[in-house]
Write a structure and sequence with these properties.
The protein is an alpha/beta fold. It folds into 2 domains: about 5-125, Rossmann fold (3-Layer(aba) Sandwich); about 130-398, no CATH class. It contains 15 helices and 14 strands. It has helices at about 5-15, 30-35, 50-55, 60-65, 80-90, 105-115, 130-135, 150-155, 170-190, 195-205, 215-220, 225-240, 265-275, 290-305, 350-360, and strands at about 20-25, 45, 70-75, 100, 120-125, 210, 240-245, 260-265, 315, 325-330, 335-340, 370, 375-380, 385. The strands form 2 sheets. Strands 6-8-7-9-10-11-12-14-13 form a 9-stranded mixed sheet, with helices on both faces. A hairpin with a 2-residue loop joins β10 (about 325-330) and β11. α8 packs across α13 and α10 (about 195-205) crosses α11. The longest helix has 20 residues, at about 170-190. The relative contact order is 0.11.
Length: about 400
């Protein structure tokens, strides 16, 4: 069981809310974290048919069996239970009595917003972060396992680092993951007539990770309408498989691009969808830069989610092509982060960040460059950060 950075955040939420909910993609470790953080509470799995039938047919009797609280796993399977949880939460004064987990975000979030608004502390748990894997000495072994390429290719899903699954092939695991996701989540939410078309849509999204979202082009390449593409993309977002990074809204004297950028939230899943067969392939792959940028953005989001903070990350790009990969506000300053997958630091990589800083003026903090090398350093007006330090530095996301 790998320690999670969100542990203290989750315990803190339980001190202020009668109900705590943990959401995130399937297999990100939500149940494990909940059981670790609330070992004193009984665990109830609503995927179990008998348990679910009781909760559906007689929710009052079901909750009467758990008056002291419980962890309800996959609670979205019984939407009606949310209304009865409201009464149970209001009847007691103790905080953190009930812990809810769920992977299918539409059912879970609908129930929370309609029945439990204001009574639930929310935590989003993404797969393991770079810092969590480094702290755990992830799968100790030869240097290849601790290389950047292996970290990008394997991703962060806990199952791929479990001791009892040491020999699992990521390609086999991701194949099963995608098939399960389509069967269990997509069919529950969408009326997808042709699953092959949806699979193509997911692969086309992967090919665009790190790029501006062109919904018309995406729909056209998949042979579907734009409204359908928008609906399917919403499902991927709600399932925390992809995220859209909005452009930073301030205008520093130039017309800005207003289209969001698309990112996958796990580089291992992205590599699988891109058919990158091994870590070695990433050394020369045409998508190496995009995979690395995707990984850095996902790490920044994990850092904020683990602290219980809203994402609040942006990129910046003007109509002349000047672009900053990550922009965020922290301590009344604007911070810029650039991503370069190369392993040798090149000073010209900071050109865009310096031009951006000149446009911003005094509000701009020293820019940060994250690169694929092992050694970081500070300059007079910048910081170069090794990929190994990603996830351990507030300079990456506030």
């Amino acid at each position: 069981m790998l320690p999670r950075d969100a542990f203290n955040t989750l315990r803190g939420l339980a001190r202020g809310f009668p109900i705590v909910a943990v959401t995130g993609p399937r297999q990100s470790g939500k149940t494990t974290l909940a059981r670790q953080a609330f070992a004193e509470l009984p665990y109830v799995n609503l995927e179990d048919l008998d348990t679910r039938e009781l909760a559906q047919s007689d929710p009052r009797r079901f909750l009467a069996r758990h008056v002291e609280g419980a962890i309800f796993d996959e609670v979205q399977r019984v939407p009606a239970l949310m209304s009865y949880l409201l009464g149970a939460a209001d009847a007691g004064t103790r905080m953190g009595r009930f812990v809810l987990t769920g992977s299918q975000q539409f059912g879970l979030m609908d129930g929370i917003t309609q029945s439990l608004a204001g009574r639930v502390g929310m935590l989003t748990l993404l797969p393991l972060s770079n810092a969590e894997l480094a702290a755990a000495g992830a799968r100790a072994g030869d240097a290849q396992r601790h290389s950047l390429e292996n970290r990008l290719w394997r991703g962060g899903f806990p199952a791929l680092y479990a001791a009892h699954r040491q020999d699992v092939e990521p390609a086999h695991w991701f194949a099963a993951y995608v098939a399960t996701y389509i069967e269990r989540d997509v069919r529950q939410v969408l009326n997808v007539g042709n699953l092959l078309t949806f699979q193509r849509f997911v692969s086309m999204c992967a090919a665009r990770s790190g790029q501006l979202l062109n919904l018309h082009s995406l729909a056209s390449d998949c042979g579907i309408s734009q409204p359908t593409a928008r609906q399917w993309l919403t499902v991927l977002q709600a399932s925390h498989l992809v995220s859209l990074l909005a452009p930073h809204h301030r205008n520093f004297g130039k017309r800005l691009v207003k289209t969001p950028k698309l990112y996958f939230l796990d580089s291992g899943l992205l590599c699988y969808l891109l058919r990158i067969a091994s870590p070695d392939d990433l050394y020369t792959h045409a998508m190496r830069g995009a995979v690395f940028e995707t990984w850095v953005v996902a790490e920044a989001l994990k850092h904020r989610y683990n602290l219980g903070l809203p994402p609040d990350l942006h990129f910046w790009r003007d109509n002349h092509g000047l672009e900053i990969d990550l922009v965020f506000e922290h301590a009344s300053r604007l911070h810029a982060v650039e991503c370069k997958s190369g392993t040798t630091y090149i000073p010209s990589w900071l050109q865009a960040a310096r031009r951006w800083r000149a446009l911003v003026g005094e509000e701009a903090a020293d820019p940060v460059l994250v690169y694929g090398g092992d050694d970081g350093h500070r300059g007079a007006d910048y910081e170069v950060m090794s990929w190994r330090a990603v996830g351990r530095a507030e300079r990456l996301s506030g």
